[in-house]
Amino acid sequence: MEYIKKEYMYNYMEQEKVTSPCISICKTDPLSGFCYGCGRTNEEKNTWKDENTSNEWKIKNLEDLKNRLSDWQLKAFEESYKSKVETGLSLIKKKLLEKTKN
């Protein structure tokens, strides 16, 4: 199992671009300094935007974020991030798009 995970991570790192963890819930908790949606700090958000940031750092940061989040927040993040990776849209953006179509 560990081999499969390492192989997946290696293939993921070789991709041209790692999808940003932003799931369009951009509000920072004033006490912790973490975003309510993705769990990143403002410094981490800036690092993601830097074109010189390696995929290896981004993948490590994604793991850090998942360890930082818990319970319903982690579940919501994982579902929305999966949607964003697969379709290009976070769940909140999908819902907003559906509303504009109706």
Question: What this model shows, in words?
Answer:
The chain is an all-alpha fold and 102 residues long. It has five helices and no strands. The longest helix is centred in the C-terminal third of the chain and has 17 residues, at 71-87. The termini are far apart. The model has no long low-confidence stretch (mean pLDDT 88).
Straight-line distance between termini: 45 Å
Low-confidence segments, given as residue ranges, are: none
- Strands, total number: 0
Strand content: under 5%
The largest sheet is: none
Q: In which range does the helix fraction lie? A: 55-70%
What is this structure's SSE topology?
Blueprint: H1 2-14, H2 42-49, H3 55-68, H4 71-87, H5 91-101
Features:
102 residues; mainly alpha; 62% helix; 0% strand; globular
Short characterization:
The protein is mainly α. It has helices at 2-14, 42-49, 55-68, 71-87, 91-101.
